[in-house]
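Dear all,

This email documents one entry for the complex benchmark we are building for the journal club exercise. For each entry we list the sequence lines for every component of the assembly. Then comes the predicted three-dimensional structure of the complex as a token string, followed by one or two observations. Please use this as the template for your own entries, and keep the labels exactly as they appear.
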Amino acid sequence: MSEHPLDPVFHPRAVALVGISSSASGRGASFLHALLDQQYEQRRPLYLVNPRATEIEGLPCFPTLLAIPGPVDHVISLIPRDGARALVEQCVAKGVRSLHFFTAGFTESGEAAMAEAERALAALARAGGVRVLGPNCMGLYVPDERLAFGIGMPREPGDVMGISQSGANAQEIVSGLAPRGVRFSKVVSFGNGSDIAAAELFDYAASDPQTAVVTAYLEGVPDGRALLGALRRCAAVKPTIILKGGYTAAGARAASSHTGSLAGPGALFDALCRQAGALRVDTLEELHDAAIVVSTAARHVRGRRAVLVGGGGGFSVLAADALARHGLDLPELPDTTRAALRPWVPIAGNSIRNPVDAGFIGAGAARREALEQVTTIAALTPGYDVTIVATGGGPPRPAAGERAPDPDDDDPAEPPLERTRRQVALLASLQERGGRPVLLVRRERADADLAAALDVTAYAAGVAAFASIPRAARALELLLDWRRARAGLPELL
Amino acid sequence: MSEHPLDPVFHPRAVALVGISSSASGRGASFLHALLDQQYEQRRPLYLVNPRATEIEGLPCFPTLLAIPGPVDHVISLIPRDGARALVEQCVAKGVRSLHFFTAGFTESGEAAMAEAERALAALARAGGVRVLGPNCMGLYVPDERLAFGIGMPREPGDVMGISQSGANAQEIVSGLAPRGVRFSKVVSFGNGSDIAAAELFDYAASDPQTAVVTAYLEGVPDGRALLGALRRCAAVKPTIILKGGYTAAGARAASSHTGSLAGPGALFDALCRQAGALRVDTLEELHDAAIVVSTAARHVRGRRAVLVGGGGGFSVLAADALARHGLDLPELPDTTRAALRPWVPIAGNSIRNPVDAGFIGAGAARREALEQVTTIAALTPGYDVTIVATGGGPPRPAAGERAPDPDDDDPAEPPLERTRRQVALLASLQERGGRPVLLVRRERADADLAAALDVTAYAAGVAAFASIPRAARALELLLDWRRARAGLPELL
């Protein structure tokens, strides 16, 4: 595969941070600490530029970019707007390949002169061989290259790409998905997009061998035709999830002062996504949940017939309502399945029709066996498109030594993390054996650590996990609507 | 005020737990431990009944109910179904005032004979002066009387009542609201409702001086006319929030095997709520958020004109979209306000039109002051119905001693809990001074303890706090739609 024009941007061999304060405070410190958190400086040269210091936090500091002895590929600029032009000239002189302007105050200021200054800067840089990210953006998170724009971003790479006009929402893509086990190929915050912008990034995503799934937050669409073309190429080969900021009139007004975008009306953007075959979502939460669906076995769900196992009576009733509201059916289980379930489920207070209400199944180790049997019988019953399994849900598990294990808990003697692994292993094996995806809805809200462990363990096993039935149902609805709208386009999943 | 017929049920002077296992395991142990967790036994007699033990966990155990020396007002039954009739007879003989059947297997089994047995039990008990809760329910949480059906339920009483046909959803009402600062007058899980059921409980709620807000989860409506009458009386005088399980056909089927209810079609239930002036919600999350709205100053919101402060650019754009989707407007701030804001907000990357984007306002202590000024100016600008303030949102705050405070953080030197108290005190004072409700949207998702502290502190100050803009927006939409639908009914809020 030939090299994409943006490849050098994602693979810089040395980085300079220009305009960091000599006390290493504020935004400059954030960028520096994000890079140190990735241990960038242990692999490649990391230079700081500030005329009033020779060393900041143990790293060499130079008075100007041109004073740096070695080559610099990527520059992160924190300098005020007025120095931007001089910095571009220095970058050209230094042979820099990409310049990331965190520096803001251009088009998004609403001043025509500043919009013009932004265009001129980008043109000057491009003419000199320097690609520009921004201005007004957070830049790059590339775990493979140890680049990051926030502390605590995972060091391991993955196959989900993020493209965002907003720095905060680039961060939300990472902070919403990383705790659920997702890892990233690249996340790019491109701000005003004076040079590198959405269309080229979708084009890159389409060809990037490390990217399997694309998520994006966009505000404006300066060149709809170019975007449609790139989006079409990308969405043809990879699930591409798009959240549009400025979808409503009020949001569009906010967007114009954010990234200087003239956000188009939502209906036009809808049409663009539909033509391209992209999956449009309305909120960050939907973006996160859709990314989980398309990067796990859940992507293979092809119809609306669901079987639901777990939870008590009241949970089952509301679950059935939520699934129905999102277009999913819960067809009754066949007689043979109900006969197989009957020995494991006491008649009283239970349903074995669908949902299978597991609220009052035995207690302790007997409950554990019964739940495994019931889940297995349901997940292997043919004629459904997806199995949804709810875990936990009782009151908080008391700490060891306290009285009162929860009788809804299957085998309270089993350590929670072992239970988590056992549950996920069962669901993963049932995905294989049953020939259809299994979704997990975890109800361990009282125990954040356990909830996180379930999410991550499930994701690693290819099982999509959600915090609630309504969210799982909405994610499946998004998937199925998207699949239907893609009729005629390449079958991706 | 004369005594309500249900008063004695909520104020028992002694409790007996009948059918607890001698090893204090399973469901019986859960009920026992819930009572011990409330220290019930330190205030009133708590008796256990099991013929195979004389003492369980240090409490005296008797072979039968009749063998208990003192009077017993309330009995919690965990015995199997077959012994239910004999227990009712004993309760009558003992002069028991209320009998809570956790015992299940009656109408909800789907067997006609069991439905008939349930009716006969209830009739027998009523004839003998014993009121029945259930069968198939969790019974009572009355913090004033130290009664509870789950561990960890708050001991302090409050003014929100819960009425639930489902035990799990009664628990969800508590576990969803208690961490947000809400406290309860009474929560009743009434299961099959063979005697005490929804209509009588709404009637009680209407007259209960300790109850200011009513939340309810209902499945079936066996007697629509009686329910409508009671609901009308209740909703006329107190905000009454209702979640209907079995709203869809699939949910209705699940409900019939849960509490034996023939759930009516959703549209009929809608009409019933509208006629009665109740606030109908679709999910537990909406029930929780609506309860927060009507029990804080947020209940006074009377129109759709919102001003939003806080968050960075991408946050503001999506916030504006979410508010618009839920019918709220963000009218531009007047020129005088924008002039007042300008000194505090750098032009670059910001909007001072509405939303007021606070993403890039200064850093450290200067940021703290600027944020306070900006929030104050916005909240005191006349012409709006509600002020919405977003906090936090940056990456996780590093632990003390680690590098890199978040530059989005106002004054990282300030201890988080102090910051929380300061933020809430400001918002509470702005509610007073501005003459309109202030809503807080907290974005401290990375720090669960801090998020919980913000929720609880805000609630205590009468400030409604939400985990996201879409949830705050939806809660306001529910409130405003409810207010409009109540035209002609007494003005409650």
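Observations: The longest strand of chain A covers residues 157-164. Chain A has 16 helices and 17 strands.
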